[in-house]
Amino acid sequence: MVVLFMVLRDDTINQTMLVPMDLRKLIPKDHPCYFIKNVVDQIDCSEANREFADSPGEFAYPRELLLRLVLMSVFDGGLSSREIERRTQTDIGYMYLAGMQHPSYRTILRFKRDYSDLIDDAFKTTIKIATEEDLVKIHHVSLDGTKIKAKTSMNKLTNEQQLKIMKQHLEESIKLDEEEDEELGEESGNSVPETLTDKEKFKEVFEKVNESSQDDRNKDKLRSSSKNLLKQAEEKPEKILEKVVTLEEKLKISGKDVISINDPDARFMKNKKGKWEYDYNGQIAVDEHKGIILASYITNNPTDHYELIPLMEQVKSNLSKIGYEIPVNLQVSADNGYSTDMNTEYLEQEELDGYISSRKLSRQEKKCNLTENPFSKDNFNYNAEIGTYFCPLGQPLYRRREYEYKNKPRITYWTKECKNCPVQEYCAKSQRYRTIEDYGNPSKIRMQRKMETKEAQEIYKIRSKTAELPFANIKQNMHLTEFTTTGLKQVNTEFKLYTIGHHLKRIFNEINNKNN
């Protein structure tokens, strides 16, 4: 009879290793850190690294190392720079990608800010990998935009009058400081005049400066946001004056009445929940097959009217750099926000098969109550075969007149039979007969006619399940509901990183599914 005895293993928590451990022996073979490394290996960082060759100062981290960490972080859902720094000390996957080095969060932040070109290269590289893995078909491309909150609030606003007052105060401060330096030397320091900090004296000076102001709301006091900005000038008034001058310039360019102090590039927009806030407009062009984003950028235009052409030009540029050309008659779908004369003309000139939603189709998709006004233009059906509108009661309205209004062609449809119609007073109202007008250039009218057909509407339905899914992933799963950076350039880089994260996750999962 054999008796087995239970024994305990030794507790080796403090045991040291005689030779360095190869981290790859501790990481599972299917861990995404290997995939991230392979992606970065395809990106040429030599020119960026050359900037640090033979330069004074401490040793710099290789750009490949920092890019690996940043891409791994967006693969994991978009981690902060502080969290990346922490994970290089606690997460074995990040330790491997960092080569057991620990760059600080400031270094990672500077990398994101200064090397947007490498991040853009990473975006194009993910498209290239996706095409090699047969995840891109380039048959149907869907365009869409979404509002994403900027890193500012309604309490951080200023206007032209406020900037004028702040500029005058700061110039007085700098002039006073220069006079004190001449009399007392550098010991006087850089300080804001007493009129900026003493409330009573501040009010006296402010009322004198503001006599010419026409804005009654700001006649007695500066906004709290402006006061806070002036308070920052206690140590470096020149720097704050430079910021005020920049705000003045950007306010003039924007053509708006107010501008955000925290992020002057952000614009006042209405989001999908009907709330007005300072946002950016994220634009993407998505391939139908596996939801790969072929182009992405941020704009501060509140509408999508001017974004179709830049999106499609970026799609062509990104594909050409990886050796692909846009096929003739590529299907391009977009919602009614992109329905402009220049966009429809561009699609025809480039020989692209466009599907831009009409106002009527958009209202049907949103399930708007078209019965509120049964005789609105949306309830008049157009028959493309005979070129005639039919009213809700079935009466045809014939093409009667063509003319130009403000250099744009218009086509009028009407019928004399309205005088015998029992609902004439409801439909035509004070007119003798009801008229329907089509306006816009011929390409836009042709697009509207095209979208009346069932075939075009079926193709257009592809857009909703193509373009909106990446946004859902980026917002819901990756939690991009508000930008953490400011300025159009930095926000563009941040948004690009999230689209790269969407690609990395998508490609990694597809490759794993093929191998399993």
Structural notes for this entry:
- The chain has 516 residues and is of the alpha+beta class.
- It has 20 helices and 13 strands.
- The chain has helices at residues 32-41, 46-50, 63-75, 81-90, 92-97, 105-114, 116-132, 160-184, 194-197, 199-209, 224-231, 237-254, 308-321, 341-349, 359-365, 424-427, 442-450, 454-466, 468-477, 488-515; strands spanning 140-149, 157-159, 258-260, 267-270, 276-287, 293-299, 331-334, 353-356, 381-383, 388-390, 396-405, 408-414, 435-439.
- Helix 1 (32-41) crosses helix 3, helix 7 runs parallel beside helix 20 and helix 8 runs antiparallel to helix 12.
- It starts with 31 loop residues before the first helix and ends with a helix.
Question: Gist?
Answer:
By secondary structure, this protein is an alpha+beta fold. It contains 20 helices and 13 strands. Among the domains are: 23-114, no CATH class; 157-260, no CATH class; 358-450, no CATH class.
What descriptive keywords fit this protein?
single chain; 516 residues; alpha+beta; 6-stranded mixed β-sheet; 5-stranded antiparallel β-sheet; 20 helices; 15% strand; globular
Outline: globular
Cα-to-Cα separation, first versus last residue: 47 Å
Quickly give the structural class. alpha+beta
Biggest sheet features: 6 strands, mixed
Radius of gyration (CA) equals 31 Å
* Overall average residue pLDDT: 85
How many helical stretches?
Answer: 20
Assess the beta-strand content as a share of residues.
Answer: 5-15%
What is the number of E strands?
A: 13
- Poorly predicted residue ranges: 208-220
Helix content: 40-55%
